[in-house]
Amino acid sequence: MHAVEMRAPGNESGISQLRILEIGFGTGLNALLTLAEAEKLNIMVHYSAIEAFPLEEECWRALNYPHRFGSVDLAQVFPRLHLATWGEATAISARFTLQKIKVTLEEYIPPWDAYDLVYFDAFAPDAQPHLWTAEIFRKLSQGMKHGGILVTFSVKGSVVRALQHAGFVTEKIPGPPGKRHILRADKK
Questions:
Q1: Domain ranges of the chain
Q2: Which candidate, 65, 55, 34, places its Cα nearest to that of 102?
Q3: Which of 170, 155, 158, 153 minimizes the C-alpha distance to 130?
Q4: Distance (Å, rounded) from C-alpha 166 to C-alpha 188?
Q5: Spatial separation of the C-alpha atoms in residues 10 and 15, rounded to whole Å
Q6: Three-state SS for 151?
Q7: Helix pair 29-41, 72-83: axis angle to 10 deg
């Protein structure tokens, strides 16, 4: 949760609910960390994630994320993230609902004005340049609420320009350990 800090209800932001879209569910790490933060701060999260090529069970189980974070609670919910039925909203906890959508980003049509936050976690721009275009970012913007935020690990100049051409205001912000900067893009 380095890119966007969630705050508990009753503070200056008053956030009680977030609708999040993740581009690239992959290992489930972003969903797991978001779930842990939502539980800690008592925030209801409706989390949608698109993934065209889900990981095999053998692979995600070998990651052992919950034990790396030293959390018995996470060890119980991590498999539920991966075993949730594709295409159905699944209550993972009292505060976290997950809907995994098996589709490519090019095929995905986001609901209009639905998301507060987008985690753009596609493979690197050099590996999949067709996913890092102004056209893709405009499509995602249509699915975001006014004032919504998109965050991504890439701070490459072409990504910044594509986001700006799609109407976002961009800012490099400090990244997690091992990553000097990440990119925050605010929908105007």
A1: 19-108
A2: 55
A3: 158
A4: 10
A5: 8
A6: strand
A7: 130
When pLDDT is cut at 50, 70 and 90, the band that residue 188 belongs to is: confident
**What confidence score (pLDDT) does residue 71 get?**
76
Q: What does DSSP assign to residue 61?
A: H
pTM for this predicted structure: 0.91
Give the mean model confidence (pLDDT) for residues 75-96: 95
Using CA atoms, how far residue 158 sits from 117, 134, 140, 167, in Å, is 21, 10, 17, 14
- Measured CA angle at 92 (ends 87, 96), to 5 deg: 95
The first and second tokens of residue 91, run together, are 């209550």
CATH of domain 19-108: 3.40.50.150
Q: Beta 144-152 vs 115-120: how paired, if at all?
A: parallel
Q: What is the mean pLDDT of the segment spanning 158-187?
A: 96
